[in-house]
């Protein structure tokens, strides 16, 4: 329900769905945004109970809002030329993500955007799945293993944005 409301709307999901922790730029066209997701957000009750996944439309809205913050202007997505969701994000397991943004303005006022989201490096706790004697898979309680996560790309986006009229 919440994600359906985002499509084609002016709804801002910042502050309730995510928080920007930092925003850094080496020049005015390339930015790295560090973000913390809110795993308690109501959207996860529908995506999905006990196994939350960040909906793709929410990731697209999050990226658009980051660009709007940088540019200090309201934007709309005019075209998505390429969008690949490479892995699902569970906000409980990986609440910290990083988004690299590169954009340039064309002569027609169109902002060409490239975005790449990665899981922020850190410690992730995973349940260990073991096979029992009946060849059924079960998750054993109290079997938690810590693994160091390398940067893993979860979205690659190429889009054109235009100022909201």
Instruction: Tell how many strands the DSSP assignment holds.
Output: 8
Radius of gyration from CA coordinates: 18 Å
| Strand order in the sheet with the most strands | 1-2-4-5-8-3
Subunit arrangement of the protein: single chain
Beta-strand level of the residues, as a percent range? over 45%
What is the overall number of helices? Answer: 2
Distance between the termini: 26 Å
**Share in helix:** 10-25%
SSE sequence, one letter per element: HEEHEEEEEE
Which stretches are low in confidence, meaning pLDDT under 50 for 5 or more residues running? 1-9, 123-146
Explain what this protein looks like in three dimensions.
With 165 residues, this protein is mainly beta. The protein is 13% helix and 49% strand. It has 2 helices and 8 strands. Strand 4 (96-105) and strand 5 (111-119) form a beta hairpin. The longest helix is centred in the middle third of the chain and has 16 residues, at 56-71. The model is unreliable at 1-9 and 123-146 (pLDDT under 50).
Pick out its properties.
165 residues; mainly beta; six-stranded antiparallel β-sheet; two-stranded antiparallel sheet; 2 helices; 8 strands; 49% strand; globular; disordered N terminus
Can you summarize this structure?
The protein is mainly beta and 165 residues long. The protein has helices spanning 2-6, 56-71, and strands at residues 18-25, 30-37, 75-85, 96-105, 111-119, 122-131, 137-149, 152-163.
């Amino acid at each position: 329900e919440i994600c359906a409301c985002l499509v084609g709307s002016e709804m801002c999901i910042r502050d309730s769905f995510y928080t920007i922790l930092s925003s850094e730029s080496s020049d005015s066209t390339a930015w790295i945004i560090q973000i913390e997701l809110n795993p308690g957000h109501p959207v996860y009750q529908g995506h999905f109970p006990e196994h939350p996944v960040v909906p793709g439309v929410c990731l697209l809205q999050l990226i658009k809002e980051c660009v709007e913050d940088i540019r200090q202007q309201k934007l709309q997505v005019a075209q998505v030329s390429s969008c690949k969701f490479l892995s699902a994000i569970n906000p409980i397991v990986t609440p910290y993500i990083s988004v690299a943004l590169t954009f340039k303005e064309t002569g027609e006022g169109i902002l060409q955007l490239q975005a790449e989201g990665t899981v922020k490096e850190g410690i992730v706790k995973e349940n260990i799945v073991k096979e029992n004697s009946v060849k059924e898979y079960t998750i054993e309680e109290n079997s938690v293993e810590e693994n160091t996560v390398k940067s893993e790309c979860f979205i690659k986006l190429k889009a054109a944005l235009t100022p909201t009229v």
